[in-house]
Each structure stands twice: as structure tokens, then as C-alpha cells.
Amino acid sequence: MGTRGREIVGVDVNELIEELNKALADEWLAYYQYWIGAKVAKGPMRGAVVAELEEHANEELEHAGMLVERILQLGGTPILSPEEWYKATNCGYEAPSDPNVKTLLEQNIKGEQCAIDAYQKLIKMVKDKDPITYQMALSILEDEVEHEEDLEALSEDMGLL
Ligand code: FE
Ligand code: FE
Ligand code: MG
Q: 78: which residues sit within 8 A by CB, 6+ positions away?
């Protein structure tokens, strides 16, 4: 933990670590929802949908890594047990029990919209108070906005929207 780096944070650090852990839980659940969704997907344009879901899965995992790095820098402990994910999550998890690509896309668009709201909230919390977390959250938000757009564009191409 960096002492001065922690001192310059202008918000309650424990509260911030809690928010970062909530986002970490969201990212792991989003990762698995995409990853397993890509495995079970069925229906029209399956190949294109699977490619997009796999790409997003990898990006959610990268987000999880960024969050853990920041939690550790702040002297916090990242969530260590998967059983904590459900307790901490903002956005929850939607099992792809209906493997049709239409349902998968709808579920994942909903997840991205929740992620956008969650990062927007985190950004408001740290704006002008913690430039490092701000920059990280902004960079993740950019990806989540892109994810939503990608999935909506795919749905549109498939005539689902
Ligand atoms: Fe993400
Ligand atoms: Fe995303
Ligand atoms: Mg994409």
C-alpha cells in the first residue's frame, strides 16, 4: 500500500474499497455470464454473437484485474471467495437458461446498462477527489458503453430491435 497515494484520496477510503469490491463482483459475474453464454448460444447468427460474447468476457476479466490492482493500492482486500460475489454485486447475474441468442443479447444488454449506471455512480463519487480511481472508472465506463452499443447493433442487424 502506498502511504501518500492513499492520503491524497479525498473520499472515505474504506467506503471506496467497498464500492470497488462491488464492481469487482459485478465484473466476475458479467465475465461468467458472457463466457458460459458463448458456450451454450443457439440460433441465428450464432457465430457473430459468440465472437462478441467471448470478446466481452475477456474485457470484463480485464476490468476485474484493474479493480483488484486499485483495491490493493488503496490497502484494501479484494473479494477472495466467489460466495461473496452474490452479496456484493450491484448488477446480479442472469443465467443463460434460455440459450437463444435473442434472450442472451437481451440479458447482456440489461447487464451492460446496469454496469454503465454503476460506473457512472463511482465516477461521481471520486470526481475531483481521487484522480487515479476516476481515470480507471472512466476507462471501464468507455468499454461498457461500447459493449452496450455492440450488443444493440447486433440485435438490430438480426432484426430483433
Ligand atoms: Fe466490465
Ligand atoms: Fe461490459
Ligand atoms: Mg465488443
A: 21, 24, 67, 68, 71, 72
